[in-house]
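Issue 218. Parser rejects a valid record. Input:
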Amino acid sequence: MKIGRNEKCWCNSDKKFKHCHYGRENEEPISKGEAIGHTKKNSSRKLCYVSSDLKHECSIKIINAHTISKSGSLKEIADESNHVLGLKINLPNIMKNKGKLIPEKIGINQASTFKGFCSTHDKTLFACIEDREFIGDEEQCLALMYRSVAKELYAKEGMLNTSEFIKGGDKGRQPFEQMFLQKFAAVQQLGINAAIKELSELKQQLDEQLLGKTVGNLTHLIMESSEPMPVAVSSIVAPISDFSGNRIQDLGDLSVDAQQLIFNSFSSDGKGYVVFSWAKESQKVLGFINSLLAINESKIFSALIRFFFGLAENTFTSPLWWDTLTSEQKDKIQKLIMSGVNPMEFEPNSLLVDDGIEFSGWEIARLEKINF
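Output the parser choked on:
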């Protein structure tokens, strides 16, 4: 490939070749220290994801906001030292574990936190679920959704920053490797930007409902148990396949908005809850939920374990429950955790399908459907 020094660079940076990739193979590669520094800086970004209409109320202090209630939920499943099991997703830890994500002990003060709300709005927006017994009313379900969407936006924006950093990772590499990395990052950014756009639009809908500008058109499924839920989760996903192995949407088609499902698993006043929430018009998500409800009730907890660990990173586990698992069950969870790590591998349709490995420790006492 011949490119003049003053021509636009082949990587589409809009810079001249001489100011971009000319001689890139002779530059000093990015060091581990630089990579770790980027990771720390990226995870320490401070924002408040409150609606722009409420920004004037923001306090100066951005806090480590919990996406899962510390006092009600995490403390309920913590061990005697106030630790739960979770994933420490940072570069030093991934390097230490040779690329694997392994459940490790995390103190409940640090578990599930992100710097996504100021102290004022973390208190006012989520007091309905932090300070009240959960009864599943619209205010509480909306608050659960809002926090999950804000956390996912924070994560996706961080991924975009990392993708830009990856582009600089071709220093010291040969031209072919440079092209591969630049192409990989460009394709990745297309998907991330599409996800940010969709999440921002969803958050805008929630903002308007929160401010009383619109009446919400949201659907919720609430599962309740008389026992605490041993796995706490707060996340959002665009499901690709259902619990029967049917492909339900193609996330590779960026011309079509992905249909999103928000889900939270937590404990409140000694009871355990799983709450699924989605926009009523999202028929693909409804089909996904129906495939879950079609499962025999005695096997739904096992299905939830496959779903939580296979599709959510913001997942925290009771150490006491984990210690009751067999080696086969722990290996299954480890495979579920690693199922979405390699960006070069497609999610198999069978990810959520029953493979005969069952889990116990939680039984549904009541189901409630809202606005189905």
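Fixed in the parser; the record now loads. The chain has a mean pLDDT of 92.
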